[in-house]
Design goal:
The structure holds two protein chains of two kinds. Chain A has four helices and three strands, in the order αβββααα. By secondary structure, chain A is an alpha+beta fold. In chain A, helix 1 packs across helix 2 and helix 3 runs antiparallel to helix 4. By secondary structure, chain B is an alpha/beta fold. In chain B, about 40% of the residues lie in helices and about 15% in strands. Chain B is globular. The chains are: A alpha+beta, B alpha/beta. The complex binds pyridoxal-5'-phosphate (PLP). Pyridoxal-5'-phosphate binds next to helix 4 of chain B.
Chain lengths: ~170, ~400
């Protein structure tokens, strides 16, 4: 898609009228994502419960591509499990690197329109900012869970040590 | 269109047979065929390692390289070719001064005075010197139109100053700074005056002695020369007293297992095999510039800048930064379009074959000072035309529409 058409058909709408540009009430996690060289700056907020991304939103400023890409990403990840969200991120990153097939990127819905960014190296950073930030957050949440699980496991093995654990 | 301009424009192969509007000349200029031919001539007739071989080609290569040095010395009014050090670019020249001079002379409590308008290459080396020596980095701040007032100069350059380092022309505002005045203040305070000439040498005659510059740095690639060759002018007595920046081959007189004595100027500062082809290209660029003449260069730039700024004024959503006087811009016009991020502006203009710069222009402290995240910049050179300016303005007026406003 020619870039003017990309702006006209997809990017402008999400940039000028984003659906998810707001603040969440009680986010599970908030993370700032920045591209220092462009001045793109987003503040991504996730609400995660039982491994599912129940809600997400963003704030910030930057170029239309970074803003629109984040807005489209949030459309995709709300209601998904963390693992599904990570998988989508993998697909999106793969698309931007030009490593995916047309079928593979169907799951990205509107965001698949950004595939031509792979021919614009200068804009890649803008397109992936939201996704990169989301991936970082989910990975951090997973790490915290593992830590919590370790603590629980350690705790239980302590009290349940020995034959008394097998009742 | 000016027939002379039209004629010179034909010397630039890249500007032929396409409709690209190249307005990113402050980042790097285009090169005329004469420069490429000179480099080719060196390559095809006397390519050998200069200063080393004892045979004819090497001797000729040395002569070509040293002739280029003479040309540069003459071009900026240096007293001797010994005061001309070839580097890779302005950035390397600035680092040379910072490491070899700055680290040697600065002590805790001393001050290094720069301006908030500087390119990162005239900020980071001084931050390094300040960190390592305990000296303090002091920023002069201009008015909104880019003017550095006498009061600002006098109040910031005090007896504590050891080094004052200022860009001759700002790569964002386009203003020409009052170097002579600043140099006088620096010298009165006992400091040396370092000038970043990256954006001045392409546009105006420069005389380092009239300016009062003790060091003067510039890049070949911004003045029609090749990439990879730059210059540091330094006053002979200062260079003489400085330790070398890089060490190795070529810059020595005598080496034992434990120590070495250094070669004389300028070779003390040119360690390793030099970029002779680049120097020959720079010499050709200077010759070309002299042939065109600064009257024509400056006249055309002024004509185009006036036309461009007048056209941009007609578009209500556009803000132009710096002075409202086009003669104070050196062909550099930095602007923003309401609601449009400069990167989007540049991307849609690219589809129209318009090349401009968008971002922070390696001047983040200035962006912060101006209260903007980033900006778009059109920078003109004498080979640009009125027709290009008109076409550019017309396309810029459509950008908001392309980015979804008013559809
Ligand atoms: C004012 C100024 N100083 C320094 C530089 C650095 O020049 P170079 O990248 O050739 O070292 C530039 C160019 O970008 C500049 O505009």
């Amino acid at each position: 898609m020619e870039i003017k058409q990309l702006y006209r058909e997809i990017v402008n709408e999400h940039n000028l009228h984003p659906s998810h540009k707001r603040n969440l009430d009680n986010p599970t996690m908030v993370l700032q994502g920045i591209n220092p060289s462009c001045g793109d700056d987003i503040n991504l907020q996730l609400k995660v419960k039982d491994g599912i991304i129940e809600d997400a939103a963003f704030n910030g400023s930057g170029c239309a591509i970074s803003q629109a890409s984040t807005d489209m990403m949030i459309d995709l990840i709300i209601g998904q499990t963390k693992e599904e969200a990570l998988k989508l991120a993998g697909t999106f990153m793969g698309m931007i690197k030009g490593e995916t097939t047309e079928e593979e990127i169907e799951v990205l819905d509107e965001a698949a329109a950004l595939q031509d960014i792979s021919h614009m190296p200068a804009r890649v950073k803008c397109a992936v900012l939201g996704w990169r930030t989301m991936r970082q957050m989910v990975e951090e949440l997973n790490r915290q869970e593992v830590k919590d699980a370790d603590v629980t496991a350690a705790g239980s093995s302590e009290c349940g040590a020995g034959p008394c654990g097998v009742k | 269109m000016n027939t002379l301009i039209e004629q010179y424009r034909r010397d630039f192969p890249i500007l032929q047979g396409n409709d690209v509007i190249y307005f990113d000349n402050a980042a790097t200029s285009q090169r005329p065929v004469q420069v490429m031919e000179a480099m080719r001539g060196f390559n095809d007739t006397c390519n050998a390692n200069p200063l080393r071989g004892l045979y004819a080609w090497s001797v000729e290569a040395t002569e070509a390289y040293e002739r280029a040095r003479e040309t540069v010395a003459d071009f900026i009014g240096a007293a001797h070719a010994r005061e001309i050090i070839f580097t890779r670019n302005t950035t390397e020249s600035m680092n040379l001064v910072a490491y070899s001079y700055g680290l040697s002379v600065c002590r805790p409590g001393d001050e290094i005075v720069i301006t908030v308008m500087e390119h990162h290459s005239n900020i980071l080396p001084w931050q390094m010197v300040a960190r390592q020596t305990g000296a303090k980095l002091v920023y002069m701040e201009p008015l909104a139109d880019g003017t550095l007032t006498d009061e600002e100069i006098e109040s910031k350059i005090t007896d504590k100053a050891k080094i004052v380092s200022v860009g001759h022309v700002s790569n964002v505002m386009g203003v020409t700074n009052p170097i002579r005045k600043i140099a006088d203040a620096a010298h009165a305070a006992g400091a040396v005056m370092v000038v970043d000439g990256a954006q001045s040498t392409p546009h105006m005659p420069v005389n380092v002695r009239d300016l009062g510059a003790d060091f003067y740095a510039f890049s070949g690639h911004k003045m029609m020369g090749p990439m990879g060759i730059g210059v540091l002018y330094g006053r002979e007595d200062l260079l003489d007293a400085m330790p070398p920046f890089l060490t190795g081959g070529e810059m020595i007189e005598y080496v034992t297992r434990e120590s070495a004595t250094y070669a004389e100027l300028p070779h003390k500062f040119e360690a390793g095999t030099v970029n002779a082809t680049g120097a020959v290209g720079l010499e050709a660029a200077i010759s070309y510039m002299k042939k065109v003449g600064f009257d024509l260069i400056m006249g055309q730039e002024e004509l185009l800048t006036k036309r461009l700024m007048a056209a941009l004024k007609e578009i209500p959503e556009i803000t132009v930064y710096g002075s409202s006087d086009p003669t104070r811009h050196c062909g550099i016009v930095t602007f923003n379009i309401d609601g449009c991020h400069p990167h989007d502006v540049s991307s849609v203009l690219d589809t129209e074959h318009v090349d401009i710069r968008a971002g922070h222009h390696c001047a983040q402290p200035l962006m912060k000072f101006m209260g903007v995240g980033s900006t778009a910049r059109a920078s003109l050179y004498f080979y640009n035309t009125e027709e290009e300016v008109d076409r550019f303005a017309e396309k810029v007026s459509k950008v908001r529409g392309w980015l979804g406003y008013g559809n």
